[in-house]
């Protein structure tokens, strides 16, 4: 009889532990301090009334090659008027750099928009180091840009989730422009050509 009671007591303890674990793994329905309404996670962006902290203009010189485009799911950088962005060997898929590009932002719900964009020109040492980085991480870049470019710009974009990505614009001596997005990795599929419209 004592053995049977001990077994029942053991089963009760195990069952209680399972129930406690199950309840502890259910997300709390309330909001923690500073957390917004959960409906905000699924709200679309009103492109006619952007949030106060949204970027509305681009710094030079990226404003020559890119422009901001707004869609209900967020903002993105696309080719400026008078320019074409294209993947080598393709005219059908339009490259773009959306505010939701960072790996940390991709799976999170809600509209994403830019809250800050800065652009700097890289000096000789930084340009050479970045050329090596891009060549290591992107087979596309390595195939097309064999020597360090004559000039290179680094764009850093922040979004409303606090995530960022880099976009490099190497300019070869021939004048050919490239765009390479790093989110944070500079993967081959994120490299494209930036050409003036003919």
Structure description:
- With 198 residues, the chain is α+β, with helices and mostly antiparallel strands.
- It has one domain.
- It is 24% helix and 28% strand.
- The chain contains four helices and nine strands.
- The protein has a six-stranded antiparallel beta sheet with strand order 3-9-8-7-6-5, covered by helices on one side. A three-stranded antiparallel beta sheet has the order 1-2-4.
- It is globular, with a radius of gyration of 25 Å.
- The protein starts with a helix and ends with a strand.
- Mean pLDDT is 83; it is low at 2-38.
Number of domains: 1
The percentage of residues in β strands lies in 25-35%
Helix segment tally: 4
Average pLDDT reading:
83
What's the oligomerization state? Answer: single chain
Number of E-type strands: 9
**Amount of helix:** 10-25%
Let me know the largest β-sheet: 6 strands, antiparallel
SS class: alpha+beta
* Structural shape: globular
Which tags fit this structure?
198 residues, alpha+beta, six-stranded antiparallel β-sheet, three-stranded antiparallel β-sheet, 4 helices, 28% strand, globular
